[in-house]
Amino acid sequence: MKKFWNFVKNEDTSETELLFNGPISEDTWWGDEVTPALFRDELSKVSGNLTVWLNSPGGDVFAASQIYSMLKNHKGKVTVKIDGIAASAASVVAMAGDETLIAPTALMMIHDPSTCAMGNKSDMEKAIILLDEVKESIINAYETKSHLSRNKIAKLMSDETWLNAKKAHEMGFVDGILFAEKKMPVPKEENEPDEKESEKEDTLTAMTYSKSKNLSAFLSKVSASAESVTGTPIDQLEKRLALLKY
After folding, report:
1. Helices in 60-103 by DSSP H: which ranges?
2. Strand pairing of 107-110 and 161-164?
3. Is the pLDDT of residue 245 over 70?
4. CA–CA gap between residue 78 and residue 99 (Å, rounded)
5. Using 50, 70 and 90 to split pLDDT, how confident is the model at 31?
6. Beta pairing class for 16-21 and 50-56
7. If we measure between CA atoms, which residue out of 112, 137, 14 comes closest to residue 58?
8. How many C-beta atoms lie closer than 10 Å to residue 99's C-beta?
9. What are the DSSP E strand ranges found in 88-130?
């Protein structure tokens, strides 16, 4: 059996870290008596807070579900840090964090579950029912974390949605962005106007210029038309004015 996780001790903090780097269970977790028990046994030996470093394209949905439950049941604080990608089943594991953080360069991806099925029509229908139920169970985890509506989450999954760090944070799938507090604001030049103020001023100037320019042009045309139709019937003058209206 090849382990897809690794518990390590952080020498600086003396706390335990759990590393997921790669697919979550290359072989099915379903029906496996060894792998889930081994993971549970190793997790039970961890006391206190736990940091989970997550970089995985996904994998077995049943493995992700059980790992999610085990992490949620852990006595200490669980902090999930997505440093590469948390896609598919791995995004479910990310929802287990009491606090879930994502690197500025990392990605999340959520989509509908898939499976392989064979057999007759009844077998295919049962597979569809199973997929529907699995999707609902995944939505439960996303909903608990993000507080988005189930319909919104279902649509995002059906569309196979990729989320960068900012979008994942805005939508509530993560609680924060790693290293954000270390970012120093870029100092503004002394005479450099604020971007919003500059945009507002430019817009105002453009609107003022356009209005005055158009009014001036209109009056010039009216004046020219009046001169050109001197001595003509008043109805012809009114027709020309109508054509020049702005």
Report:
1. 61-72, 89-94
2. antiparallel
3. no
4. 7
5. confident
6. parallel
7. 112
8. 13
9. 99-102, 107-110
Q: Give Rg (Cα) of the chain.
A: 31
Q: Could you tell me the CA-to-CA distances from 129 to 59, 102, 111 in Å, in that order?
A: 20, 33, 17
Do 112 and 131 meet the contact criterion of CB atoms below 8 Å apart? yes
| Confidence band of 53 (pLDDT split at 50, 70, 90) | very high
- Residue 225 corresponds to which tokens in the numbers above? 């038309």
Angle between helices 121-146 and 150-158 (to 10 degrees): 120
d(CA 176, CA 180): 8
Is this structure's pTM higher than 0.90? no
Q: Which two tokens stand for residue 200?
A: 């507002």
- For residue 246, the SS3 value is coil
> Strand 78-87 relative to strand 50-56: parallel, antiparallel, unpaired?
parallel
Angle CA 160–168–8, to nearest 5? 100
pLDDT in tens, 142-177: 999 999 999 999 999 999 999 999 999 999 999 999
- Asked whether residue 240 carries a pLDDT value surpassing 80, the answer given is no
- Cα–Cα distances (Å) from 201 to 14, 196, 204, 205, in that order, read 55, 9, 5, 6
